[in-house]
Design a protein that fits this description.
The structure holds 2 protein chains of 2 kinds. By secondary structure, chain A is α/β, with parallel strands linked by helices. Chain A folds into 4 domains: 10-140 and 147-289, no CATH class; 310-392; 408-493, no CATH class; 548-756. In chain A, strand 10 and strand 11 form a beta hairpin. The longest helix of chain A has 22 residues, at 552-573. Chain A is globular, with a radius of gyration of 34 Å. Chain A starts with 9 loop residues before the first helix and ends with a helix. Residues 140-159 of chain A have low confidence and may be disordered. In chain B, helix 3 (44-52) crosses helix 5 (104-116) and helix 16 packs antiparallel against helix 17. Chain B contains 17 helices and 11 strands. Chain B has 2 domains: 75-239, P-loop containing nucleotide triphosphate hydrolases (Rossmann fold, 3-Layer(aba) Sandwich), CATH 3.40.50.300; 245-378. By secondary structure, chain B is of the alpha/beta class. The chains are: A alpha/beta, B alpha/beta. Chains A and B meet through helix 13, helix 14, helix 33 and helix 35 of A and helix 3, helix 4, helix 11, strand 11 and helix 16 of B.
Amino acid sequence: MKAPGPALDTQSVGAAVELVLKDEIYWFPVRHHSPRVARHLDSTIRSLRPKVVFIEGPSEATALVPHVIDARTRPPVAIYSAYRAPSPDPAAPRTKDAQQAVWYPLLSYSPEYVAMRAAAAVRATIEFIDLPHWARPHGPSTESAEEEPIEEIAPTLDVEGAFYASAAAAAGFSSWDQAWDSLFEFGTSLDDRDVFRRELLTFCAAARSSASPERMLEDGTVARERFMWKSIRDGIQRLGVKPSDAMVVCGGFHVFLDRDDLVAAPDVPFGEVQTALVPYSFFRVSRLSGYQAGNRAPRFYERVWELHGRDHDEIVAQHVVEVLKRARALGEPASSADAISVAQHARMLGALRRHEVATLDDVQDAVITCCCKGDPGHQGVHLTAAMDHVAIGTKVGTVSPDAGRLPIVSDFHEQLQALDLAEVVDRESRITRKVDRRDPVGRRQAAFLRRLVFLEIPFAEIATHADGAIFTETWRLKWNPEIETQLADRAHYGESLESAARARLREDLGQIASHAGTTARRLREATEMDLPDLAGDVRRACRVAVDADPRFLSLAEALGELQILRRHFEHSFGSDADLVSLVGRCYDRACFALPEAANAPEEDHERIVEGLRIVAETLVDASAGLDRDLFVQYAGRASSESQTPFLQGALMGMLAELRVVPAEGLSVALAAFALQPPDVLARAGEFLDGMLASCRTSLLLGSDHLTSAIDDLLRAAEDDAFLTMLPRLRSAFRRLHERQRRTLADTVARRLGLTSGAEVTRLGASSGAAALFARIDARAARILEEWRL
Amino acid sequence: MPSKEPEGVESRLREPAEQRFRDEIQALAEGDQDARPAHWALSPRAVLAYIVGGSTVEARLGGKKRSVPITTKFYGDRSIVERAIVTLASERALLLLGEPGTGKSWLSEHLAAAISGNSTLTIQGTAGTTEEHIKYSWNIARVIAEGPQPSNLIPSPTMVAMRAGGLLRFEELTRCVPDVQDALVSILSDKAIAVPELPDANMVWAKPGFNVIATANTRDQGVNDLSAALKRRFNYIHIPVIRDAKTEVQVVRQRSAELLQRYDLPVELPPKIADLITTVFREIREGKSEDGVSLKQPTTTLSTAEAIGVAVEAALRASFFGRQKVDGSDIARNLLGSVVKEDASDLAVLREYATLIAKKRGAKDATWDSFYQGLQEVVPAK
C-alpha cells in the first residue's frame, strides 16, 4: 500500500459538492460503462426533461448523434475521429502530431449513450463538448520513438488513477474495480438517484482535491475543461435556453472544473477531420484488449443492465451457469451442484468482504474455489478461459446504414467483390485460397492480401510458404464483423487500402531511415504489395541505409531480405542490375561490419550466428557473384579480435563450413583451451557452443578430432572449471540433431573400445550410483579373472 | 527467558495454536459483534482478522484492559484465507493443496483454533490409516466382556468433532489409500456415521458447525488421487509457494524468531543471513539466479518452511557448537539436508550453485564468502 498522502480537507470537499448541487446547471457525474450510473442518468433526464444535454463526447462528432440513437444502431459501437494536419507535401511521412485518431466506444449501458437516448426521448438538444483530441496537450510522453504512433483510445485521466488506486487500497479492496462495484455499482443503499449523485460527487470531489494542479495542466485536463466550459456557455447562449434547462453529463472529475478560469480555451488546429460511427466489439471494449479506460467484463455488466429490477442472485446465477457451461465445453467437469455451490459461496464471500451483494470478484473467486481441483495456474486454465469468455462476451455491434461507411471500409468491400473474394464475407467461415501470382487476378489478390497483412487487419494469413514456391501462395481467409472496426482504425492513413498501405510505409520509412534491415524488409513488402511507385523511393532509402548503417546485424538482415527480392525479380522479370548491385554493396558492408560485431554483448550472439549464416549463404549463391576473400579476410580478423569465446567459435566454425579452415583446425583450437589457466579453460564450453552453432556438418565429418579435443578438455578441467563450462556444453550439444548426436556418440563409443555397437542401457539410477555399480562390476571381473572363471 | 505458561500448566514443547494465541482469540471474541455460524468461536470476519493479523484489539483480559496486537499467521493472498473461511461455513469441506512446506498445516491449525477453539482433532493420513481411524473403533476387551455398547466405543477425532460441531483436521489425505479416503464420502454427505453394531444408537449425527479441513501435498498427486465423489465434496484451495522475495524474507525472519524463542536460544538471525537463505532457496527452487544464470533444480521442493528449518538449525549449531553468531557457513552446513534428500545426484545442484553463484558473490560480500567456504566443506569432492 502506498504511504498516505496529506489528509483530505473534508470541509472543502463538502463545500465543493454543495456548490455543484446548488448550481443552476444540472451536473451529472459519470463513470464510463457503468450500468448503475446509466440507470440513474436515464431516470434523471426523463424526469427533469432538460432542454439541452451537454455530453463529454468529441465535439467534432456532434453530427453523428442522430445515427448513434437510430434504432438500427446497436451497441457496441464507437465514434471514430481522425485528424490529418494540412501538409504542403502529401507524400512526406507524417508526424504523430500531424495525424491522430481516437475511438469513443459506446455500450448499451454507457451513461453517455443512455443520456443521448433519453435526451432524444424528451426532445432535448444534444451537444458534445469535449476538446478535439488533436488540440490537446500530450503531456510528458513515456512512449519510445519506435512505438506505434497515432492511436489513442477514449479519454482517460491520468490524474484520477493514483487517487482511485490508493482509495481502493486504503479501504481494503484489491483493485479500484472491486471498490467501485462494492461502493457504487451494486446494492440497494444507493437506489435513490439523488443520494447516489451526492455520494458520487463527494467521491469525485475528494479525487479532485488530491490531484496536483501542475499534473492537470500537463496532461491536458485543464485545456479540456476550459473548452468544455466554453462549449457549455456558448451552447446555452446560442440555443437561448436558461442555465436551469441545461444538463451536463461528464466524468465526475470534470464536474468540479474551474468556472472562474479566465484563460481562453485552446484553439482547435485546422486540418482534415474524419468522423464516423463504426461497429465495435465487447472484446475491444474489454481491458483484455489493452483499452485502459475499458470495462473489464462488458457482457457481465450488460447482464446487470438488462436484468435490472430482478433479484441480484438471478444475475449471479445466470452468469455462473453460463461460465460452467462454457467450462464444460472446454472439457471441465462442472455440474449443476457446482453451480449451486458457486452461487452460495459467492454470496458468502461477498458478505465476508462487506459487499451488499456478490460482485464479479466474489463470483470469480467462488468459481475457482468450488470448481478448480488444484492449482488455478494449471488445473484452472479452462475455468479461467471460460470466466474471461463469459465475462467479456463476443458481441459485435451494428451501425445504422444511414451512417455510411468510412471510405477505407468501402474500398475493402469493393475489392473483395472485384477480386472474387466476397464469398468470405457471405459465408463468415474460414476459407483457403490458392493464389497464383503469374495470373493477373492472382497478382492483384496477393497484393490486396499483403496490404491487409501489412496494415495488421486480421482478415488473411498466409498458410504455406513452401521453399521454392515463388509464384503460388496459399492463404487462409476469415471474416468477422470486427474487421470493419480494425479497418476504420487504419482510416487515418488513407481512404483506400492502397493509399493506407502507402502512407503507413512512408511513415515507417521516416522512422527507420537508418536501419538497413528494416528498410530492406519494407522494400520487399512494397514489392509484394504491388506499390511500384513507392518501391523506387524505398530502394533509394535502402541504398542510403545500407551505406549509413554500420551494424552487422542490421546489414545481415538487409542482405537476407534483398536476396529474397533478387531471386523473385530474377524469376519474374530477369536479372535486375540495380538490385544485384545493392546486394553486393550490402554484402561488402556486412563483411566490413564483422569486426565490430566480434565483441557484441551476449544477448546478440544468436542473432550474429544467424547473420553469419545469411552472409555465408549469399556467398555460396554463385549467381550473386560476390567476393569470397572479403568475407574470409574480415571473418578471420573478427575471430582474432574477438574476446568472446562463443563468437570466436562461431566465426571459426563458419570459416570451417566454407572449407577455409579444416575441421581439424577447429578441434585443435578447442583442445588448446586444455592448456590454459582454469579461468580460461572454463570458457571452453562457450567456444564449443559457438562452433556448433555455425558449423555442424563439417565438424562432424571430423568427429574423431572433436571427441579427442573434448576428451582433452575434460581431463584437464578441475571440478570447478568443469561445472562452470557445463551449462554451455549442454547448450552446445542441444544444437545437434538426434542423428548428429548419434554420430558423435558412435565416435565416443569407438574411442572407448565399444566397437560391437552394443546397446547402451539408459541409466535408471543417478550417475553416482552407476559409477559405484561400474566399480563393483570391475572388481567382480578382477576376482573372476583371479579365480580363472 | 521467562516461560509464557500460565501458572499450574506444565511446560510443553509445543502448545496448540488455541493455547499459544489464546489472548488474541479471546480479545477478538470480546469485540466480535458479527454473526457467528453455529458452534463457531468467532465470526468469519474475526477469524479473518486473526489469520491475516496486522491489527491491534483493545480487550479486557484477566480483569485488565489491554491492547492485544494480532500477529500475522498467514502471509500472501488474503483472498485465500477468505475463501477458506467461507468454505468452512458452507456445505463443502476444505482441502488445502500445495507444495510441501507452503504452510497448509499451519493454516489448517489456525483455522481450527479460531473457528472451533480446538485444533487437536487431527487424523494424520498415512498408507496405514484405516477406516477405524476415521470412524470409530472398539475397546476389544470390554466388547468381549460386555458386548458392543456405546461406552465401549472409542470415538475417532471425526466423531468427536461431529458431536461437538467442531472441525476435524485431516493431514495428508492423499497418503491414504482410496478405500479409506472414501470413508469420508458418507461423513461429508450425510453428516453422520453409522454404527451398525449398536442397534439402539446406530447413528452419530454431526452438530451444526462440523466440517473437515484436509491437506494434501501436490507431490503426492496421482499416487492416491481422490475419487470423483470425494472431490466433489471438497473445495480445493491451492497455497502457492511464496514468489515475492520480500514476503519470503519476512516470513523466514518472523518464524525463525518465534522458534528460537521457543528453544530459548540467545542467538539472533541477522537480516543479512535471512536474506541469504531466502535468496539461495529461491534461486535453486526456480533454477535461475537473480542475474539470470540458469541452474540445475533439485528433485526436492525447497519450501519456505525448509528455509526456516535451515535457519533455526544453523542458529542451534551456532549456539551450541559455534561462535554464538550465525554466519554463512552455518547456513551452508545445514543446507545439505534440505537440498539432498531423495537423490544423491542433487549434490551436483549444490556444487553447481557454489561455483557459479556463491563464489562470485563471495568475492564482493563477506556473508556470501563465508557461505561459499562452508559449502566447500560440506559438499564432498567428486
